[in-house]
Design brief:
287 residues, alpha/beta, Rossmann fold, eight-stranded mixed beta sheet, two-stranded parallel sheet, 11 helices
Length: 287
């Protein structure tokens, strides 16, 4: 587990949007790693991957990037297709910092952004890891719970119901949707997620029509991804069964799938040692 500091906040402007990131590790000639986060309330790259930071930063540079609308980045509306818009900002982030090529490690929503970037700019991606990512509009066997009536108001309920964001509401949300074992929720992660969620700028976005862009189904584009891609999935993932990554795996040119039997959506938080070993071995095959 990581007990290291995330380091100071850094910022870069891409197309007039200020993006927040943190940087750990030293440049020793290996490809850097860019970590991106999921789309749940209060998600940030650091809170999603803080238990992986020490293992990865030991011998390479690691960038923990907050997408627009999250963390310390600007709360601005998305214009157009969701993954495409964020992928252009990710590409701009790499350009601004002179990152010619990097490994991409991504939680959920971030995996959709990374796959969209990899499909259009294959030369910029070494290897790609997507955890619980479902940038598709259905599974192979059943509709995705994300599009069901049970999830339709997930974000609005957290931000707008009752007195708005609270530590206890965040605890319930993380244990219900992101973890299989409730005891794996660390108080530091809970604090970071709540503090990042308690932002009036996001509540304003909820009241702005079209602020979150247009949903994209990336299934038709997955065959364009040339980077070796590891899909990681928790057997107890609330957002979809293993038929979802299987569907994606069949479209990827060089795809791999690893199922974590005792984890749900944030498996790198529930099984950090297992995930870190797996991920380090995977990206280590391409220096």
């Amino acid at each position: 587990m990581s007990s290291i500091s995330p380091g100071p906040s850094r910022f870069v402007s891409v197309d007039g949007v200020r993006l927040h990131y943190q940087l750990l590790g030293q440049d020793d000639g290996q490809l850097p790693v860019i970590f991106t986060h999921g789309g749940g309330p209060g998600s940030t790259a650091w809170s999603n991957f803080r238990l992986s930071a020490a293992a990865f930063a030991a011998d390479r540079q690691c960038y923990f990037l907050d997408f627009a609308q999250f963390g310390g980045s600007d709360r601005v509306p998305v214009d157009g297709p969701l993954f495409t818009w964020h992928a252009r900002k990710l590409l701009g982030f790499m350009d601004a910092l002179g990152i010619a090529r990097a490994h991409l490690i991504n939680q959920s929503f971030g995996g959709g952004v990374a796959l969209r970037l990899a499909a259009e700019h294959p030369q910029r991606v070494g290897r790609l890891i997507a955890i619980g990512s479902q940038p598709v509009d259905q599974g192979a066997l059943a509709p995705l719970p994300l599009f069901s009536k049970h999830a339709a108001n997930l974000m609005r309920d957290y931000y707008l119901a009752g007195d708005g964001p609270s530590l206890e509401k965040m605890r319930v949300l993380l244990q219900r949707y992101e973890l299989h074992d409730d005891s794996r929720l660390e108080e530091e992660t809970l604090r970071l997620r709540f503090e990042a969620s308690n932002n009036p700028g996001f509540i304003r976005l909820l009241g702005t029509p079209g602020a979150f862009g247009e949903w994209e189904n990336l299934l038709p584009l997955l065959h364009q991804v040339q980077a070796p891609t590891l899909l990681c999935w928790g057997l107890h993932d609330w957002f979809g069964s293993i038929d979802v990554p299987m569907l994606m795996l069949n479209r990827l040119r060089d795809g791999y799938l690893h199922i974590f039997g005792n984890a749900a959506h944030h498996l790198q938080s529930e099984c950090p040692d297992e995930f870190n070993r797996l991920a380090l071995g995977f990206i280590g095959a391409d220096q």
